[in-house]
Amino acid sequence: MSEPVRVIREVELVATDPTSGMLRKKAFELPILWAGRVETQPGAISGWHHHDRNETSLYVVSGILRLEFDGGEGYLDAEAGDFIHVPAFTIHRESNPTDEVSVAVIARAGGGIPTVNVEDYLKRS
Q1: Cα-trace Rg, the chain
Q2: CB neighbour burial string for 37-63, b if at least 16 within 10 angstroms, e if fewer
Q3: N- to C-terminal Cα separation, the chain
Q4: What is d(CA 77, CA 49) in angstroms, rounded to the nearest whole number?
Q5: How far apart (Å, rounded) are the C-alpha atoms in residues 81 and 101?
Q6: CA 10 → CA 16, 29, 59, 80, 98, distances in Å?
């Protein structure tokens, strides 16, 4: 039998999967589903990373989340109310170009390693 329906309170979120410039907190993790939230501080730029075989969905709750990714030129900005899809194995980084904290809800499906940090990806900074 699967686990019963439950509520994970904000105070129960656990800091996890560190990537420089971002604070991720996990709500729960199952074999093929990971859920949590991420806060990106004003002016912060995360390290380059990918999420293994996980398809990642982000819902921007507040602020602006800027995304740069391998195979794309420039960047994409998502603001409150927008969704972002990051395909599995896509090397990317997030940043926050504003003066307010960016908050997003994350859901990853597929399993594998939740976050794989990639040091000095393509020697970009």
Answers
A1: 14
A2: bbbbeeebbbbbbbbeebebbbbbeeb
A3: 48
A4: 18
A5: 15
A6: 14, 15, 17, 19, 24
Tokens of 32: 């093929």
Query: Which of 31, 44, 45 is CA-nearest to residue 2?
Result: 31
Query: Contact 17/116 with Cβ under 8 angstroms?
Result: no
What three-state secondary structure class fits 48?
coil
Q: Which residue type sits at 10?
A: E
CB 124 within 8 A of CB 47: no
The neighbour count for residue 18, using CB atoms within 10 Å, is 12
Tokens read off for 98: 């504003």
Residue type, 59: Y
Per-residue pLDDT reduced to its tens digit, 15-51: 998 877 889 999 999 999 999 999 999 999 998 999 9
- Determine how many CB atoms are found less than 10 A away from the CB of residue 104: 25
Round to whole Å and give the CA distance between 110 and 33.
7
CA gap 124, 58 in Å, rounded: 24
Do residues 50 and 89 touch, judged by C-beta distance below 8 A? yes
Q: The whole model's pTM is what?
A: 0.87
